[in-house]
Structures are given as C-alpha cells and as structure tokens.
Recover the amino acids of this structure.
C-alpha cells in the first residue's frame, strides 16, 4: 500500500532523512518510532506530499507522491503533529470543508461527516466552535479530519500527545479498531502505544532505520537471554551464591533488600530480597529451576516472574548502539582522511 | 488545468463572517469615507454659495464632477491602502501560525487553488464593502447632478484598484507567520507603490517618468477623473497576476525548508 524506496531528504546541508526504505501492506498498522528529531515528521510529510523527497521514490496506493500527488492526497488522511484545526469553525463545518476539499458532493459530504462524527464520538459538540473545545476534543476533531472520506491510508503524527490517560486509551482503541480495514502509519515516541496498537515497528534514528519488525520479534532479537525476577525471604548472600551456581545463569543482579516484619520474640528474621537472574540464552525452563532450588533450601519464595524486555529498553539499546556506530564510522573516515593528508 | 478553489473560497468566506477584525475594519472604512464624503459635500456647498471664497481658492467655475466625484473616489482609493491589509493579513499567516497550513497542503489542492481561493474570498468581502459605498452615488444624485458615466468609471476603478491591493496583501501574508507583520508589510508595500511616482516633476523625464508609470497613484487617478484606459486597467491586472504568482512561489518554498 505504501512503498518507500531509498528516500533521502536534505534541507540545505542537513540530512533529515537518509536512505529510508520500507513497505506497509494493506491493513497493517505500522509504528514509526524514534527520538525527537529523528526524521519521523519529515518522512510523514513526504508521504503526505507536503514536500517531495530529495532522492528516492515513494508510492502510496500505487500513486507516486511527486507526479500523482492529487491522487495520493485523495486517498490519504493525515493528522499532523500538534493537530491543526480551524478554531473559528464549528466541528461540522471543518469536517465538511475537508470532505469538500477531497472533491465530494453535498450528499456524500453529509454522509461522511455524520459517520466520522459517530466514529470519533463528537456528536455532542458537532455544532460548537472548535476553538471552544477542550484539547481532547480538538484531538478527536483532528482525527476526524483525517478519517473523512474513508481514506485508504491514515497517517498520524503523534496522535496521543497531550491527552489524559482515558483519552489516550480511547484514541488507541480507535486506531486498533481500524487495523485490517485501513493502512495506518503512526509515529510516536511513547512505546506502550506501539506495543498496544501496531503490528509492525520501524525504529528510526538520525534519519535512518535502526531496526524494524514485529514488536515480539524485536524483543527476542534484542534481549538474547531470559530475565527472571526472584523475590524470596532468605539470607541474601546465600541466595545469591546458590542462584549463581545454577546452570545457564549468566549473572545475578541484586535489586532490593527489605526488612521483613520482626517476629514476635524480637529476633530479626531473614530479609525479603529481590534479585534478577539473567541467563545466557533463551531458556523458558529457568523459572521452574529457580523455584525448585529456592524451595529445596527451605526458603520462602514470594514471587517469581519473567521480566520481558520492554520495547523501551530495546529502543534505548537500538538508539545507543546506532548512534555509537555512526560516530565510530565518522571517526574512521576522519582517520582515513588524515592518513591521506599525511601521505600526500 | 483543473481548478479546485471553491472549497477554499467557501471556507474563507465563512470565516470572514465570524471575524471581528473584518467588522471593525469595515466599520472604520465606512465611517472614515462617509465622514470625508460629508466634508467634500460641505466644502462644495460652501464654495457654490460664496463667490468671494471661490475666487480666493482659485476656482472660478465649479465642477461637481471634479470637486465631488473625483475627490470621493480618490479618498476611497486612498483609504483602501489602510484597510486592505487588515482584511488580508490573516489569509496565509494565520494558517502557518496555527499549523492548519500543513492540513491544507495535505488535501488535494494545488498551490494555485489555495492562492486563488483566498484571493477571491478577500476580494469578495471587499467587494461587499465597496458595494455599500454605492449609497454615496445615491446621495450625490439626490443633491446634485453628477455625470453618471464618470461616476461609473471612478467606481469601477475602485474595484480594480482593490483587486491589486488584495493581491499584494495576500502576498505579504504568505511571507510571515505573524499577522501584524503581514499587515504592516502589506501597508508598506502598498504605500511604497502608491507614492513611488511622487518624486517626479512634470518637467522631469527618464527614470522619474518610469517610476510614475509604476505607481498606483498615477493609474488610479485616471479612473477618478473618469478615464477608463486599457493601460491603467492592464497595469492593475499585471499587479494582481504578479502578486498571486509570487505568492504561489512563496508557498512552494516549503519544499526547500522544513
């Protein structure tokens, strides 16, 4: 549905997007992830024909964004960052304008406006001026504007920024409901959002793709081993030594030790300690191994769970390694250059 | 070429009807032009009743067309210089400021559609206001005998002049995100083009004649005298097209800048 091939975008000397290639299939929800200033908005603006790419080719629904931009814009619904809305118009009028711009006649416009208002829950405010609405409602108006005319492709730039938790949940649900029916590309730097709504993730950093895949695939790819959190009432030192001697365990990281309630006779009992056990490779059986070992020694196991690596950690790791790579690359180049200078 | 400016025109007109700036500027314009029109009429009636005063002022013979009609439309054209920027300042500057410009260009419009739609909307509003000025004609006909063809040409001239002013106001609005800056810029450009020919003297030739031929004042005064010439109308047409074209180019600058 959306195909991006070797796209770069320069602003003067600044390279905002650098050789970006990816594809989004019909009905897919793609999460566009990256730190601020990574080139997410630039990439989205290219997709929505705001400006053409400096290099490379982008097609949306088979239409080229440079040569067939009218067609592209008719099948794309776009919600830019900061949600621009016409504050001096009523909700109805603003939506009608968007439908009118997309070339629909009065009857079709009325139908689209009604259906979109229903879908985004704007019924109670449809005749109010947008400038008088709360931020949450304005955000919904922005989404409604993007949804007008049943666009095949929906491009949302940070759709949940500035909303309260309930509204965020609503917007995410709305996006989730569209999966399968519409192709959605959404950018965000909020990671749970991606985990909850997206079927595929592209992490971009400094204008380049740093990693991509399903959230699950990225998680297993990046972490390499399993992490298990153990909470037990036991002498901390002994517990640690015991766990370290288990097969497969790479290292044990102490997290926290809390005093338990002093027993009635005044003696201080064992403490509640929390440790993280990391294995060297993926090992699903580590849970039972640890549990058995703790119980066999007569200690009391309080809690045991697998700590999946969050997308957050993946993100930070990817960004860190990517940035480091880039800077070493630069250093290499500089060395080469200085070596050549020396030669001559 | 496909034209698709109607949605823009419609939206702009709707938002003009709810804009307080428009009502204030229109009210001010009608108040000022009415006041000055009253002054012109009063002056004329004083002159016509007092031969002594007439001689002192150097007007042996009184001419209603020259003293009332020409003066009135000169005043209207002059006041438009101040009023038009107030109407045009928000056209593009506001969209850039609030970010709706990004929404606008993500819709299937060409840059021309945006520029022409906005131009026509502002021009239509100005047309309504100039239309209200039609009652000056009725007043003149009630209290005097104006030469109607001269009135028609002078009145038409104001519409033509307004088109050029609006186009330049739109251009100024495209250059900035700040409405006040847009208004001041429009006013400076308009006043500059209005006065550019005033440095010339009748005896001077060469460059000063060229400057005169480029000035709003020179061409618009032909209309107020009842002269409808192709070169004057053509001059304003060129100004309109040039300003709209430059506005399109400015909108295109987004392709080079983030």
């Amino acid at each position: 549905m959306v195909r991006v091939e070797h796209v770069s975008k320069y602003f003067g000397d600044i390279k905002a997007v650098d050789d970006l290639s990816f594809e989004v299939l019909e009905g897919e929800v793609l999460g566009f992830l990256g730190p601020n200033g990574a080139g997410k908005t630039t990439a989205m603006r290219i997709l929505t024909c705001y400006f053409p790419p400096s290099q490379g080719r982008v097609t949306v629904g088979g239409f080229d964004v440079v040569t067939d931009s009218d067609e592209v814009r008719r099948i794309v619904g776009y919600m830019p960052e900061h949600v621009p809305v016409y504050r001096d118009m009523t909700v109805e009028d603003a939506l009608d304008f968007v439908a009118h711009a997309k070339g629909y006649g009065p009857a079709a416009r009325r139908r689209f406006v009604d259906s979109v208002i229903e879908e985004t829950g704007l019924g109670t405010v449809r005749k109010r001026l947008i400038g008088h609405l709360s931020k949450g409602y304005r955000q919904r108006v922005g989404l409604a504007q993007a949804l007008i005319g049943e666009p095949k492709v929906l491009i949302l730039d940070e759709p949940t920024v500035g909303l309260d938790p309930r509204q965020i949940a609503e917007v995410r649900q709305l996006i989730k409901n569209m999966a399968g029916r519409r192709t959605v590309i959404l950018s965000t730097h909020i990671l749970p959002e991606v985990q909850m709504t997206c079927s595929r993730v592209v992490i971009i950093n400094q204008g380049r793709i740093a990693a991509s895949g399903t959230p699950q695939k990225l998680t297993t790819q990046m972490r390499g081993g399993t992490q298990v959190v153990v909470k037990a009432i036991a002498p901390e030192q002994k517990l640690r030594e015991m766990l370290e001697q288990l097969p497969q365990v790479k290292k044990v990281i102490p997290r926290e030790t809390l005093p338990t309630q002093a027993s009635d006779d005044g003696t201080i009992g064992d403490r509640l300690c929390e440790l993280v056990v990391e294995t060297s490779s993926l090992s699903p059986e580590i849970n039972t191994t640890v549990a058995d070992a703790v119980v066999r020694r007569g200690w009391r196991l309080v809690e045991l769970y697998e700590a999946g690596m969050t997308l957050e950690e993946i993100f930070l790791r990817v960004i860190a390694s990517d940035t480091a790579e880039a800077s070493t690359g630069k250093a290499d180049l500089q060395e080469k250059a200085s070596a050549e200078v020396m030669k001559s | 070429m496909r034209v698709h400016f109607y949605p823009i025109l419609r939206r702009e007109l709707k938002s003009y009807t709810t804009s307080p700036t428009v009502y204030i500027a229109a009210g001010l314009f009608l108040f000022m032009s009415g006041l000055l029109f009253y002054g012109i009429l009063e002056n004329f009636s004083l002159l016509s009743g007092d031969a002594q005063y007439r001689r002192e002022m150097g007007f042996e013979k009184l001419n209603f067309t020259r003293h009332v009609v020409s003066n009135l439309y000169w005043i209207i054209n002059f006041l438009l210089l101040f009023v038009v920027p107030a109407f045009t300042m928000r056209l593009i500057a506001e969209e850039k400021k609030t970010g709706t410009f990004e929404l606008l260009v993500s819709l299937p419009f060409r840059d021309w559609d945006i520029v022409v739609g906005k131009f026509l909307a502002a021009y239509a509003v100005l047309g309504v206001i100039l239309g209200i000025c039609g009652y000056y004609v009725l007043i003149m006909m009630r209290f005097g005998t104006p030469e109607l063809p001269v009135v028609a040409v002078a009145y038409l001239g104001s519409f033509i002049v307004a088109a050029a002013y609006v186009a330049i106001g739109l251009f100024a609005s495209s250059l900035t995100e700040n409405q006040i800056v847009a208004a001041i810029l429009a006013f400076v450009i308009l006043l500059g083009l209005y006065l550019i020919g005033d440095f010339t003297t009748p005896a001077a030739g060469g460059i000063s004649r060229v400057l005169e031929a480029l000035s709003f004042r020179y061409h618009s005064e032909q209309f107020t005298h009842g002269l409808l010439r192709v070169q004057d109308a053509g001059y304003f047409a060129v100004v309109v097209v040039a300003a709209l074209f430059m506005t399109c180019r400015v909108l295109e600058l987004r392709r080079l800048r983030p």
